[in-house]
Amino acid sequence: MRGLAGKAILVTGSSTGIGFAMAERLVAEGCKVQIHGRDQAEVDAAVAKLGAATIGTIGDLAEPATAHAIVDATVKAFGRIDGLVNNAGIYPRGSIGTTTAAFFDHVFAINTRAPLLCAEAAIAAFRLQKSGGSIVTVGSINAWCGQADLTVYSMSKGALMTMTRNLADALGPERIRANQLNVGWTFTANEDATQQREGRKPGWQNELPAVFAPTGRIMQPEEIAAHTAFWLSDDSAPVSGQIYEAEQFPVIGRSRAQIS
Hints:
With 260 residues, the protein is of the alpha/beta class. Helices cover 43% and strands 15% of the residues. The chain has a seven-stranded parallel sheet with strand order 3-2-1-4-5-6-7, with helices on both faces. Helix 3 packs parallel to helix 4 (101-129) and helix 4 runs parallel beside helix 5.
């Protein structure tokens, strides 16, 4: 895609899953990529697989200082930062009847505060470079309403939509773009483990009803990675402030006949 080769990109939560697929795609596009995760062994394995165009750093995004630290590490390693992918997040189950203040604070610290702090640090770097830049934040289709057992998670992703539009509106004159991917149901090792823990049998991803997978299959991480690369690239410029549903069906306004 246009304008990606040589760019320095930080992808949070990129040692495994969708984040790793994003990093892999960006390396294939000629980018230099900062791999981030919480587990040293997973980060090391990702860097070893993706090669010399990557560096790795660990950090817990529940800690406010981590956001600036990983952006600083990207600039130190590559001399600059051109793009940020706010991918890291958690999705613990919890309904309104089981939510506690501590649970709320933990989910929002990682899913909402950390993307804001990462964006803050990246924007400061973009301004020092006088370069413009691109921020892609990974949300969820649950941001529009969400499941009954994902109340706080859905709220945390909904807040990101407002953040994305606000940043885009404020930063457009500086050529700093902000867009959001609201990702639908995607198969990863973590999602597989979650679904089996909740009672689904191995291979569940191949037997989804058409209401969830009208194309006959679940989405794959590399497909989400392709959309991410597009929104980081010049091919999507100068578009900013958009909430983009990466899903197999219309998320808003879907016919009740389709979901009943």
